[in-house]
Design goal:
With about 675 residues, the protein is an alpha/beta fold. The chain is built from 24 helices and 21 strands. Helices cover about 40% and strands about 15% of the residues. The radius of gyration is 26 Å and the shape is globular.
Length: about 675
Amino acid sequence: MLLLTSIPPISGPILSPLMAPITVLLPQWMLIVLFAIIPFYMWLSYWPGRKAKVVPIRASAFSPDKVPSNLDTIVIGSGSGGSSCSNILAQSGQRVLLLEQHEERTGGCTHTFRINGCEWDTGLHYTSEGMGLATHRAGALLKFMSRGKQEWKRLDDPYDQVIFPPDQNVSPGRPNYNQYDFNSDHSLGKKLSREILARIDPGNDFLLKQCEVWMELATIINKGFTALGSTRVTPRFLHFLLSKKVNQLYTLSSYSVRDVQYAIFNCGYSISDLYKDCPKAPPGNEPDPVLRRLKAVLNHPIGDYAVQPREATFAAQGITMAHYMEGAAYTVGPTGNLSIRNSSMLRNFGGEVLCDATVEQIIIEDGRAVGVLVRNTSAGQDGPITEIRAKNIVCATSVFNLHNKLLPQDHPSVKEFRDETKRTIKPSNGHVFLFCKIRGEAEELELPRHNLWYFNSYDMDQAFDQYYADPVTHRPPTVYIGFPCTKDPTWSKRLPGVSNAILISDGLFEWFEKWHGTHVHERGDDYESFKEQLAKHLLDILYETVPQVKGKVEYWTLGTPLTEVSYLASYHAASYGTKCDTNIFNRLNSKWTTNPQTSIPGLYMAGSDAFLPAVCGAMYGGILGAASILGYGGSLRMAFAFLSEFANDLQEANPKMGRVAAYLMAIKNFITEPVAN
């Protein structure tokens, strides 16, 4: 009270006429509060991107004269993470340069390409329904970045179908199906559990109960990652509020998928039991015919993180299950548009997007990242080098590329990364891709509108071991079979009379290492012969699962892990960045993964290694990277701007909802909605 009475009345030649009525009606203390709130609100609501419009324009080829001056941030890599990070930074008012090493296009694993009158996506084959809905946080963030330019189409149920070869190892009196549908489930997996068990062991109440435990674990993992992501952008003194969920996540992530299945289905473990310990599954195949089938079918998401059950962290299984629990979606138009629409925001604020730009090295001066050395990819190793400086540098191309290629190799951080006592993470495996052009319209050919997953055996680990040891003799353990022509509603207008298929199986970089460093199309007869043998497996699987396309495949081309190295600059063809084994979320590795911060001032991470693999996880990793650069104040402004638009979307979906209720729901969903929804 003494403080308030000591402040003279608010007056002045300019304010007096305006404020006279207010000063009469309001107490002086209230005026002081009002004059404190107004500047804060003006500061909080400052977000230059609010009124910016996105005009999608493809990236130009790199040349020094196209580089803007006075850059705030340089982002290396234009995949989902790099595009998201650069978009948010640009909306905050920063001048951002986004660099992509691909000679012709941006997008990383989300880009599309055309050959012989057909088109294929490369990494975004489908995503969760939530990514396409502006009433979900993920979808609202995508709309916020693209200004609603990117549309999505929900996939009909089933969105996935898993197909096994005929197998006579079945218990007496039990059904012997070899196809299992995965439909959207808004009951946290209870409906899906009943549907799966109906085709394996109907009426088994114990297994139904344990299936529900399995599904509930996915929800716990999902919430754990939401909490973990929150710790990356909130002050440390608040982390105690999130510690329980984060600790649960770390505990479950230390178990393998195989061991968790053994604990739940063989030992009858509950969730509380798993928080205490997880028994090791015995070696060899599952002897019980019912459990053998059930475990294999429940491994359905394995293709989305590409690690066999014996090695895979249950966290990867759980988050992928949760990601698709409520269904799936696909882009309207080519998937490559996603990067173009997100990155085009940069030009509104003096930034630029350039492809054909290989970053040779990050410049470190006085311990701080201050710039990059760049050359044209098309010019080869002998091309001229351009030095570009900025206040911040973001690596959105994996922690392995950062420490094995981009940083000076004598830097202390590189030496620490190579110390096996301080890092146990490994690069993920690569993939083999078969891209097929098919004669005829998808509707006439009756091509599936859902994704097919071919699983070579119910004995999953054995199938992986045999394939990795001899990929010529043995078929791949899992194969994704997708038809973008049936999922994209614009396809028939853009490419009439033509259909496409994409088949993807696992592939080890080690198989191709002897050809590493050779040029595309110049790898010799042995390489081409090996590709032919791998392609035969995939073509045979295609014709077995979708027999109507046999004789109508006009053209096909096979991509190998070296293709990923050449076109995506993946370190050792690591499709997902860091391998999703039981080490990835070990606290020892928290410095390297699920973390947008680095030990080098001015250097940040974005993309999958800043948070999680795949398109959605990398998007969040990009946003976390941007938030790290913006700091708490800038992140608060970003959140305020986003919540305003999120509330608008919620009101649009429910016109009866009031503005205050919409804001409250937007805040609730922003804070609590799991990352995989």
